[in-house]
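re: ur question from yesterday

yeah so i grabbed the chain u mentioned. its 369 aa long if i counted rite. heres the sequnce exactly as i have it in my notes:
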Amino acid sequence: MKPERLTKVIKIGGFAHVRPVFTGGEHPIVIQTMYKDRLSMNELDDTVKKIESLQSLGCGLLRFAIPDIQSAEVFGRLCEMASMPLVADIHFDYKIALRCMDFPVSKIRINPGNIGDKDKVKVVLQKAAAGNIPIRIGVNAGSLPQDLRKRVDGKEMEPCEALVQAAEREIAVFSEFGFNKFLVSMKACTIADNIKAGRILSRRTDAPLHIGVTEAGPLTAGVARNTAAILTLLSEGIGDTIRVSLSDTMENEVIAGREIIAAACQLTPDNERLKKRGVNIVSCPRCGRHSFDTLAFTNRWMHKLYAMDKNITVAVMGCEVNGPVEAKHASLGITGTGDKVLIFKNGKVIRTIAAGEADQVFSEELDRL
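ran it thru and got these structure tokens back, copy pasting raw so excuse formatting
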């Protein structure tokens, strides 16, 4: 089954050294995150390594805050080095966006609430069009245009409608200047406003939508809030790229995004845009019966497993109660009993080893899959 809403397709990246990413249409949902630290020219090699690690986990786009011209210079150099499409996040000063586009930047994000008047936007659009660079219209509930903010504060308008109107104003400006290579995001810290705004705008534009809850909080709260909003919208065919905003690591943002998409696929299994790819990890929560530390083992192996290009299920189970039998669907599993560790495939124990050999033997069996 095709999603109910098909958006226009936007190509992001695709320079000589940057692989292209496609959003919209029938293309898979793209996961992105945002770099957590300020850029430094002295740390670019380490930053490139971090980018490659995020890419291996399933990150398709990486956004950087560019607060000043100096940051734009460092970001431009990074764009020349990285193979993942990089996005410049610009607030307040349109000249920063112009400078970023002197480099092989893959996308620009601007906020209509604070980027400036129409003439400044026009200059940005002209340069983006000349460089074939897409732009994300990024609307935040916390930085709405002043007239809309007054109406929301005065209870004359719902925040979700204000988000939509702010986005539509910018879409109208883009259309006026003949620029159509754009995506849209409308983000609030409340779940309901994100869902309502996404539903409304999805009926009014064919632009790809970037969805997620902003300022969602620490890991547990943030994943819960993002899941509630993103899962609802994806299940309705709304959303083309996502970010799980967390006060946590970029890696956990990407992994959470993968799992939300996988959950949406379970709800709408015929939607090809949501098909799960890569390793599926199942693990028991651990209890007083455990004789195998599932938490420690999963933490050691999680990033390596998510980075693997294999469509398999891996089970990490705590004891014989929910070991090979309950996880018999797993391509590879591990559990403990007494002072021994069991390695099993498809519910059948294939090796019984000492606990100290667990990681080595698990690695050997994983490589055989």
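noticed a couple things. Residues 159-176 form the longest helix (18 residues). also The radius of gyration is 23 Å.
anyway ttyl
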